[in-house]
Write a structure and sequence with these properties.
Layout: H1 3-35, H2 40-59, H3 63-80, H4 88-104, H5 115-126, H6 131-134, H7 139-142, H8 150-165, H9 185-188, H10 198-215, H11 218-246, H12 252-299, E1 302-304, H13 312-322, E2 327-332, E3 337-339, H14 340-345, H15 347-361, H16 365-370, E4 377-386, E5 389-396, H17 403-412, H18 418-423, H19 426-432, H20 453-463, E6 467-473, E7 477-485, E8 490-498, E9 501-506, E10 510-517, E11 522-524, E12 527-532, E13 535-541, H21 542-546, E14 556-563, E15 568-573, E16 575-583, E17 597-602, E18 608-612, H22 614-627, E19 646-650, H23 654-666, E20 670-674, H24 677-686, E21 691-694, H25 703-712, E22 721-725, H26 730-739, E23 743-746, H27 752-763
Parallel strand pairs: 2-4, 9-18, 13-15, 19-20, 19-21, 21-22, 22-23
Antiparallel strand pairs: 1-3, 4-5, 5-7, 6-7, 8-9, 8-16, 10-14, 11-12, 12-13, 14-15, 17-18
Length: about 775
């Protein structure tokens, strides 16, 4: 291939990009002119788009493109000058020209454009135009001075506009400027788009997520350094006490050496404090920057909804005309941000919904007039964010859905008998419209009747963990709403522990979570069940499904209820770890499809978590049920022993803390210690405790604040709290009890049995 061939091929590619952008302008303008033939702004936009395409086609020698664009331009100029009034016939012919312009630029069009096609188009369009006007050059045509370097000028224009249109995933950043470009060039084009490979963008998002996780590692490190600082302070105080004790027994040399140690230790403490302040500042800065980086990377995956809707006005217009209907089409929320992957999946579902609205919902003008409606119907496509979801709806003001016809179709297709169909509610009837092969048409047409449209919508929505809702107002119209996640990159999940490992269930697939008493587990036909919404639901262990080791036996069973009305199961897990927003990390393709697992993610502490594929998990459950291989979960009478009671001791004094820990552990209690109120609050939220024993005077968070937090939280309010403090004044005791403490013990009267008696009074013996 010669250099000339390569140059022409490159120019053809640029022309195709130019044609894609300019024909979009032409289509939008023509649809506006169909309703407002004298709209000056629409005429100007169409004329300039046709002129640009004519110049671009002339540059690369596409004479067919020149001829088509020229006659279209002349038509628009005639309309601007009042020499021509655009009629629906003109609009039809001009839209035909738009299609031809797209095809002449294709390398291998499915249907090649012939000269006969072009001549027919020109004949149809020029017949209404006066011969006198054909001889007049347009204003823009006069600007194409042959003495000007038009080739270089238009080539630069094509390249700039192609960069703005050609992209797999747009990133709202300034385009890279040539080396000789002025510094302010980028500022003049802040909305330029760059081509970025999807794989590269996904990797940037993944790395930014890892940076966010790593930045949060500093917080626990800083906390551990604070503990070191407190230990150093206690050491310094102990050294001061030693100095005072030995001051009368040591000579001046020894005292001087001991004083030097005290000075050095104090200096180390001040230095450590300063470094901790710097570390805290760096922690906040790095966390904020990491969060901003992640948010920006996530935003790069988002595109305006309008990017996927350019073709729909033309589709609606052509379909309505072919069916003899008049429709005004409106798109609302074109700037609504949508995940790139979701946007790419919306084309077919939205096409089905729009065709469904026009073919099934909208009446003919005569039928609408007979019912007192305007002859022109309204169809609206809307996208908006609501309650953390993306809502995309297609609504019309047509006849609505005839529920009796749906009921009759259900019986005719043998999906239910007459008696059952008669009892179906409105929503149950509407749900039948989403089934595969279900159609209201008795005969198949080129528009509908095969029953694949709404089924395709339902399958797409289900694939992204969304839902479809149908709203019907007989005689006034209907509305189909797709509820979709805002992004596929982040999933809100329920974290659970199974066999010591964390797993995530996408919340969109979780019907409910519950703590099930073992006494409520029953056997039914050889399988364990429990009552859920008045129906028996099968119970399966996550250990068996995920091939994990069984955890410790508890009095209750944590259960995740998944599935739908037709197929519901309870999955028994070791315990719930709470809800999290997880950044989805696709698994390495070399691993293939891992049974019951959809993807991975990283938690805030850097630990890996596997995201469960709920649909796959349901298939695994069904296979175990049919094979009769389900493991059983021990019932109440099978629990041999109860775990020892767990006490949280919150005390900043090392001596008192260790004394209380040893006393309680010697009596048989399990003990966890915390060095201050903040440390205690974090420990309480990450574990399960039967009792909290706390001091009052502590750094970061004192005991009164801790008690107040505990008693205000519905989850921890039932946990008894004992205050053990040197403060023995009535007002101190009153403050503690008013905050919610269940017991107040003064350290001044503290002795071993007093503490143990109080603990026993509050929670009983260490084990039942």
């Amino acid at each position: 291939m010669t250099d000339d061939d390569l140059s022409r091929q490159s120019l053809l590619e640029l022309f195709r990009e130019e044609a894609s952008a300019q024909t979009r302008v032409l289509s939008d303008g023509l649809l506006a002119l169909e309703h407002r033939p004298t709209d000056a702004a629409a005429l100007e936009a169409c004329m300039r788009a046709a002129h640009s395409l004519k110049g671009a086609a002339r540059i690369i020698g596409l004479q067919d493109g020149v001829d088509i664009a020229h006659v279209m331009e002349e038509c628009f100029v005639g309309a601007q000058r009042g020499q021509l009034t655009l009629t629906p016939a003109h609009i039809d012919a001009l839209l035909r020209g738009v299609d031809l312009l797209l095809r002449v630029g294709e390398a291998k069009p499915a249907t090649p454009v012939t000269r006969a096609n072009i001549d027919e188009f020109i004949q149809r369009l020029t017949s209404p135009v006066s011969a006198a006007h054909d001889t007049l050059p347009s204003e823009n045509e006069a600007q194409l001075d042959p003495d000007v370097d038009v080739y270089a000028q238009l080539q630069a224009q094509l390249q700039a506009e192609a960069l703005a249109q050609r992209h797999e995933a747009p990133a709202a950043e300034p385009a890279i400027q040539p080396e000789d470009a002025p510094p302010q060039a980028a500022a003049r084009h802040p909305e330029r788009m760059l081509r970025v490979r999807a794989a590269n963008l996904d990797r940037v998002l993944s790395l930014s997520g890892e940076v966010l996780v790593e930045s949060r590692w500093l917080k626990p490190f800083a906390t551990s350094m604070l503990r070191l600082k407190r230990t150093q302070r206690e050491t310094s105080l102990a050294l001061d006490a030693l100095y005072e004790t030995l001051a009368e027994h040591l000579d001046d040399v020894a005292l001087s050496a001991l004083a030097d140690v005290r000075t050095a230790l104090n200096g180390m403490q001040h230095t450590l404090g300063a470094r901790l302040d710097e570390l805290d500042h760096y922690d906040r800065s790095s966390s904020n920057l990491a969060q901003l980086l992640y948010d920006e990377a996530l935003q790069c995956r988002m595109r305006p909804f309008g990017d996927a809707t350019h073709a729909y006005p033309r589709v609606v217009r052509d379909l309505a005309r072919s069916l003899g209907k008049r429709v005004k089409f409106e798109i609302v929320g074109t700037s609504t941000q949508v995940d790139r992957d979701i946007l790419d999946m919306l084309d077919a579902p939205l096409g089905h919904l729009l065709r469904n609205a026009i073919d099934h919902g909208i009446e003919t003008p005569d039928e609408r007039a007979a019912h007192g409606k305007a002859a022109e119907a309204h169809v609206t496509l809307e996208a908006r964010h609501s309650a953390g979801k993306l809502l995309i709806s297609v609504s019309d003001d047509g006849a609505g859905i005839d529920l009796e016809r749906v009921r009759a179709s259900v019986v005719r297709r043998k999906l239910a008998d007459d008696e059952t169909a008669a009892r179906l509610s409105e929503q149950e009837l509407l749900d039948f419209l989403l089934l595969p092969g279900f159609s209201m048409r008795d005969q198949v047409t080129d528009v509908s009747g095969r029953g694949v449209g709404l089924d395709a919508v339902h399958e797409m929505v289900k694939a992204v963990r969304g839902a479809v809702r149908i709203f019907n107002d007989p005689g006034r119209g209907s509305r189909f709403v797709m509820q979709l996640p805002l992004t596929l990159s982040v999933v809100r999940s329920l974290l659970v522990e199974v066999g010591g490992e964390a797993y995530a269930f996408p919340l969109a697939h979780v019907r409910r979570t519950l703590e099930l008493a073992r006494a409520d587990i029953d056997m039914l036909e050889g399988q364990q069940h429990f009552a859920f919404d008045g129906k028996p639901v099968g119970l399966v262990t996550a250990h068996q499904l995920l091939e994990a080791q069984a955890g410790a036996t508890r009095e209750s069973v944590s259960v995740v209820v998944i599935g739908d009305e037709r197929e519901t199961y309870g999955i028994a897990v070791d315990k719930f770890l709470g809800e999290r927003m997880l950044v989805v990390q696709p698994l390495d393709a070399r691993l293939g499809k891992i049974k019951d697992i959809a993807a991975g993610a990283l938690m805030e502490n850097g630990d890996a978590v596997l995201i469960v594929d709920v649909d796959d998990l349901l298939r695994s459950v069904d296979k175990l049920v049919r094979g009769g291989q389900l493991d059983r979960i021990g019932r109440a009478q099978d629990v041999a022993t109860r775990q020892r009671k767990h006490v949280l001791v919150v005390e900043d004094s090392l001596t008192v803390r260790e004394l209380e820990r040893k006393l309680l552990e010697k009596r048989g209690y399990t003990v966890t210690v915390a060095v201050d109120g903040m440390d205690g609050w974090n420990a309480l939220r990450s574990g399960t405790f039967d009792l909290v024993v706390t001091d009052i005077d502590m750094p970061r968070m004192d005991g009164i604040e801790l008690v107040t937090l505990i008693k205000r939280d519905p989850l921890f309010k039932p946990v008894p709290v004992m205050i053990v403090s040197y403060k023995d004044r009535d007002e101190d005791r009153r403050r503690g009890l008013e905050a919610g403490a269940d017991y107040y013990l003064a350290k001044g009267s503290f002795h071993d049995e007093a503490l143990l008696d109080a603990v026993r009074d509050l929670i009983g013996e260490a084990s039942a």
